[in-house]
Design goal:
mainly alpha
């Protein structure tokens, strides 16, 4: 399958490509993360246990979506596959109240951890194959970024806007 509008006709690829946000250049991961933010705000309106359950389900389904999309494109972890970024930033933002300051900081922290890939994120990215490999590094980056976000918010360093 060719990357582009044709891929978006397949519902699994449409999700794997972040509703087309992964097709944007440069930095498709950043565009995908930005596209995930409106959904994160919606998740923030739900009870926290339901939000965590939905994000966990999105991560599990994401293993299949990312695997399917990678096989359809013929490239493991193609940069246009951004469902993993969606889930990763959602995880990050579940660690703090949904304020615009927290969303901006969470976005920045997630992108930082996703790009730099400190241990064990880089190791997981290199060692785990398939859809699980595409998802796991972003899930862990989301957890790391979320913990840092929670520490910053809990420290009182941020304005409460």
């Amino acid at each position: 399958m060719k990357l582009g509008p044709t891929a978006l006709r397949d519902p699994r690829c449409l999700l794997g490509l972040g509703f087309g946000s992964g097709l944007l250049r440069p930095a498709p991961g950043t565009w995908g993360t930005l596209a995930a933010l409106p959904f994160a705000v919606l998740l923030g309106q739900l009870p926290i246990t339901l939000s965590w359950a939905l994000v966990a389900a999105a991560a599990v389904v994401g293993v299949h979506l990312c695997d399917y999309t990678a096989k359809a494109l013929g490239v493991h972890d193609h940069p246009a596959i951004v469902w993993d970024e969606f889930v990763g930033v959602w995880i990050t933002l579940l660690f703090a109240p949904m304020t615009w300051v927290n969303v901006l900081l969470g976005f920045a922290l997630f992108r930082l951890f996703d790009i730099i890939k400190p241990w064990p994120i880089r190791w997981l990215d290199r060692q785990v194959d398939g859809g699980l490999g595409i998802m796991v590094d972003d899930v862990v980056a989301g957890l790391f970024a979320g913990l840092v976000l929670a520490l910053i918010v809990g420290s009182g360093l941020l304005p409460s806007l």
